[in-house]
């Protein structure tokens, strides 16, 4: 196995090399309007309760959230120092860290959107516990939690789960956000994300859900068609700092958004979800506001937002849709999950 970072001198960022992951097991799933519902238990799934993973470990008969160390990590706690390239602008370093998998539920067929609010609340608590444990390690500089949902974003197993990378470096997107928040705080003594929320509340057209302690909206500057931010209203550096009432509010708003996603086209809506939390390296994160970002890759059913010349070649997104239009679509759909309606009616799914 290789856990290596290689410096990209033109972009001034590190690229993780983990070639061994190319051979990890692939179950995949079907994404489309007529996608069949998977079973509640799959004997071939390495994430279902009681099954054996590729490492030879048996999953316990878990009934709630289940966390374990990733069998195919992109970073390792004892990653060796890689050989250095010949003297040049190139350089390498070990990609050290801890990679974990978080199964949301023992049910193979239930997406996060289909779990009750109480179960989503338990997941938030599990994320809190993982952040606190991993952030306390001196070698960990950043804890990134994320979910890849849907075959179109490369998920290898449809069992509802996310991943955690606790790394010896800070991912660039977070580093950029931290710097922007710090500059805004130093210049105005205001939290940048609070100003964004205030602007969204003043406009009102792009808000999807809101309660006393949490809010969800399509940002004015959205790059993807259905890009959505979910956040507590109070400013915290990480999820670990949220109080009980804030967790309640966040779980409710998160559930609302996820159901709207799935109900839009009545398919398990694909996305990349990432928790944006402050680094754990002791650097100045003044004004940083924890939040979740959803980046759905579809513009229409089975039609991807392709990253082409402007995005890949130029580094700037070209949005083919209006955030206001996409927000109206999501605002119009039911918050009762379509699969729950099918099950009540006795139809397949």
CATH class: Alpha Beta
Helix/strand-derived category reads: alpha+beta
Outline type:
globular
Strand content: 15-25%
Structure write-up:
This protein has 349 residues and is α+β, with helices and mostly antiparallel strands. It has 7 helices and 14 strands. The strands form 3 sheets. A 9-stranded antiparallel beta sheet has the order 3-5-7-6-11-12-10-9-8, with helices on both faces. It is globular, with a radius of gyration of 20 Å.
Task: List its salient traits.
single chain, 349 residues, alpha+beta, HIT family, subunit A, nine-stranded antiparallel sheet, three-stranded antiparallel sheet, 7 helices, 27% helix
Topology (elements, then pairings):
Layout lengths: L3 E5 L4 E5 L48 E4 L22 E3 L2 E7 L13 H19 L6 E8 L11 E7 L4 H17 L3 H12 L3 E4 L3 E4 L10 E5 L11 H22 L5 E6 L14 E5 L2 E3 L2 E2 L4 H5 L9 H10 L5 H8 L4
Antiparallel strand pairs: 1-2, 1-4, 3-5, 5-7, 6-7, 6-11, 8-9, 9-10, 10-12, 11-12, 13-14
Brief rundown of the structure:
This protein is an alpha+beta fold and 349 residues long.
């Amino acid at each position: 196995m290789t856990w290596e970072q290689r410096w990209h001198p033109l972009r001034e960022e590190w690229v993780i090399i983990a070639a061994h992951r190319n051979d990890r097991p692939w179950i995949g799933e079907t994404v489309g309007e007529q996608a069949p519902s998977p079973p509640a238990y799959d004997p071939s799934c390495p994430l279902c309760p009681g099954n054996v993973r590729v490492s030879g470990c048996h999953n316990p008969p878990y009934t709630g959230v289940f966390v374990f160390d990733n069998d195919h990590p992109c970073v390792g706690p004892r990653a060796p120092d890689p050989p250095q390239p010949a003297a040049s602008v190139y350089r390498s370093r070990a990609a050290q860290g801890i990679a974990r998998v978080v199964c949301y539920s023992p049910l193979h067929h239930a997406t996060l959107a289909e779990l009750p609010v109480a179960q989503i609340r338990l997941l938030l608590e599990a994320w809190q516990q993982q952040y606190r444990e991993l952030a306390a390690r001196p070698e960990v500089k950043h804890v990134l939690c994320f979910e890849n949902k849907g075959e179109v974003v490369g998920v290898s197993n449809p069992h509802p789960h996310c991943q955690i990378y606790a790394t010896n470096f800070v991912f660039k997107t977070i580093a950029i956000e931290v710097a922007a928040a710090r500059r805004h705080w130093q210049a105005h003594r205001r939290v940048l994300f609070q100003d964004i929320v205030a602007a969204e509340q003043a406009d009102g057209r792009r808000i999807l859900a809101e309660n006393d302690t949490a809010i969800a909206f399509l940002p004015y500057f959205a790059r993807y068609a259905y890009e959505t931010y979910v956040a507590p209203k109070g400013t915290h550096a990480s999820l670990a700092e949220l109080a009980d009432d804030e967790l309640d509010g966040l779980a409710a708003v998160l559930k609302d958004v996820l159901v709207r996603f799935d109900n839009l086209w009545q398919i398990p809506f694909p996305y990349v979800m990432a928790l944006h939390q402050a680094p754990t390296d002791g650097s100045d994160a003044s004004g940083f506001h924890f939040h979740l970002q959803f980046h759905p890759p579809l513009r229409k059913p089975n039609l991807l937002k392709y990253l082409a010349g402007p995005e890949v070649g130029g580094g700037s997104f070209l949005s083919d849709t209006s955030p206001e239009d996409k927000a109206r679509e999501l605002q119009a759909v039911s918050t009762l999950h379509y699969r729950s309606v099918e099950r009540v009616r006795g139809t397949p799914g």
